Amino acid sequence: MSQIIISCSKSGLKPEKNTECLQLQDLKTGSLLASFKNNSSDSRCITLVGSEFIAIPQSDSSTLHIWSWKKSQPHIKCTMPEKAGSIISSIDGQYCVMGGISGTIYVWQVATGHLLKSWEGHYKKVTCLSFTEDDSFLVSGGEDATIHVWNISSILHSFDSSVVKPYSTWSDHSLSITSLYCGFGGMNGRIVSTSKDRTCKIWDIPSKTLLATLVFPTGIECCCMDNAERFLFAGGIDGKIYGVHLFASYSITDAALKESPQTLYTGHTQPITSLGVSWDGMTLVSGSLDGSIKLWDTLSCQVLKTFTNHKGPITSLLLAWKPSDLLQSDKKITAPIQTFKKFSPTEVLLPINFGNHAPSSFQHLSFSWDSNERNSGDLRLIKKARIIQVNF
Predict the structure, then answer these.
(1) Contact 39/8 with Cβ under 8 angstroms?
(2) Which residues have C-beta within 8 Å of that of residue 322, sequence separation ≥ 6?
(3) Of 323 and 263, the one with more pLDDT
(4) pTM of the model as a whole
(5) Which residues, including other chains, have CB under 8 Å from residue 163's CB and lie 6 or more apart?
(6) Which of 15, 167, 173, 340 is the most exposed place for a label (fewest CB within 10 A)?
């Protein structure tokens, strides 16, 4: 089984009809495996949903396109509550999370399409999202220079959106957060954040503390690490990629915030938007606003291949294992997925009549249905019911 590069680009001011702005390429050979039409995405707006789907919010509208590996046209098109700033799916593919330009965070259940939760996570646009490896925490960063770590279990079991509180909040960056990377270890792992303030910070989730700060000559747009978490790669606004050895003493004891020694990967002419590392740590993949994708040898810092198939700037890319059913339209889609609802369920309290024998406390039945369907009067739209206990 081989790895593939999934890359997105943004159409120009006058895009051609059916421009192929989503492409799949083989990591080893560089051959173009598939092209998906009708897509134009912004930075950090791509995610794998489970093992069968790719979800990408469109840059020119508040529309979400979801593709299946099996066909080149979008499998689902749905209207979102607002334009997306970032999107991510849980590792197990059960939930999809979107951060809006208003700072609101939305959580959908993939199998039903229900909007389970929405809350004001940031004061400004949500620029990046990431799940920990075990899906226990959601990490969000925004233009307000703040990073929040959210406990997914407590959020989904909370009925009041106004009381959603983060597990931890970090505000050490001075400018907008540009990317987040969650390492191995799940809730006991580490988080790497980058910012336009020229710094890259490493955080420890259990202790909620800052472990190290790396300073670069320019603002950083993206980052990634190898699977051993020994090397960190940071993509700069100046078009250069900076490699840092995390086990060197300067990365742990750099309290004076001096610029850390780095290995340079030079070749792009415009800002780096996305980075990825192969499973063996030998190949680095980069995408840039100059419209090219480059493969680098991580040891020699030399360019191995350059792809220029896209007609616009590269906005996002990620690495994945090559699916066995790529563009095999005769095979059925097995994973459950529904159109994402634009509104969350609405609840109505129905009192229970106890007659003359009312107890000291009474109960209400709470029914909920999709709010965009609530005027139909069809009781079959009721999705769930629960008991609310009211004491006097």
Answers:
(1) yes
(2) 1, 2, 3, 4, 26, 33
(3) 263
(4) 0.81
(5) none
(6) 15
Which one, of 121, 163, 99, 116, lies nearest residue 344 by Cα? 116
Amino acid identity, residue 41? S
CB within 8 Å of 176: residues ≥ 6 apart: 127, 142, 143, 144, 145, 195, 196
Which pair of tokens denotes residue 226? 């190898």
CA distances from residue 115 to 22, 343, 346 in whole angstroms, order as listed:
27, 6, 11
Convert the pLDDT of each residue in 33-88 to its tens digit. Answer: 888 776 777 777 889 898 888 898 887 788 898 888 877 788 888 999 999 999 99
In the block, tokens 């590392």 appear at 277
Contact in structure between 303 and 267 (CB atoms under 8 Å): yes
How many Å apart are CA 116 and CA 168, to the nearest integer?
A: 22
Residue 218, class by beta-carbon neighbours within 10 Å (0-12 exposed, 13-18 middle, 19+ buried)?
Answer: middle
**CB 12, CB 21: distance < 8 Å:** no
Neighbour tally for 190: CB within 10 Å: 20
The Cα–Cα gap between 64 and 87 comes to 10
CA dist 172 and 194 (Å) reads 11
- Tell me the sheet residues that pair with 185: none
